[in-house]
Amino acid sequence: MALHERLLEANGGSWHCPPERVEWSEDLRKEREDFCAQFEGVRRWGFKDPRALLALDGWLQRFPGAKLVGTIRHPMSVAHSLHRRDPNLHSIEEYMGLWAAYNRQLLEAWRQYSFSIVDFDEPDDRYVASLGRVLRKLGLKEGLASRVRREGLLKGLASRVSQERSPFFDPALRTHRQEGVEGLPAHIAELYLELKQIAAHW
User: Which Pfam families did the record assign (predicted)?
Assistant: First the structure.
């Protein structure tokens, strides 16, 4: 996240004011290499950061075989969540514009590389099922260390031994859950519906 922030700042922008173009300077490419060095010898690793959409070209130059996964969420839910976090930075309408800027990048990347997209607005059981499909497609499964971090030592060990499926997320953390496109600007509604349709087929 810090690397991405420095990258965006070097290109005259920030996470909340995306620059028109993003170019990796030699210094930032070196910082990227230093970041990657900590995973040397690790067979699989990855990260999740919305800013990666703006920095994607540089990551794919470094890792041309990288596996991508996208996620979408209702634009109004995102706008309300961001506005609650920092109401002085942007208005609700401006945060929706920011949603559109990021999700246009997501759609453009999907058209170029064709990867799985999960829909955070799906009902809990369908959302968890879609995550399971993505994990299987990537050849991944949750390890013991992850379960212990997430559930605590005793519960993590017990659920691993029993092979009990535990949710990847806490549904109580969902806030500002929205449905439908009523009240959205037409261009944002169109983008959201197109991404939802893509997610439904993965």
Answer: Sulfotransfer_3 (PF13469)
Q: Is residue 21 part of a domain?
A: yes
Give 10-32 pLDDT, tens digit per residue: 999 999 999 999 999 999 999 99
**Amino acid letter, 77:** S
**For position 152, what pLDDT does the model report?**
75
Q: Are 25 and 10 in contact (CB under 8 A)?
A: yes
Q: Range of 53's domain?
A: 1-66
Residue 88 covered by a domain: no
Note whether residue 147 is domain-resident. Answer: no
Residues 6 or more apart in contact with residue 169 via CB below 8 angstroms: 127, 128
Structural domains in the chain (count): 1
Has residue 60 been placed in a domain? yes
Strand partners for 69? 116
Q: What is the pTM of this model?
A: 0.85
Q: Is 12 left (phi over 0), alpha (psi -120 to 50) or beta?
A: left
Give the tens place of pLDDT for each residue, 94-144: 999 999 999 999 999 999 999 999 999 998 889 888 988 998 889 887 676
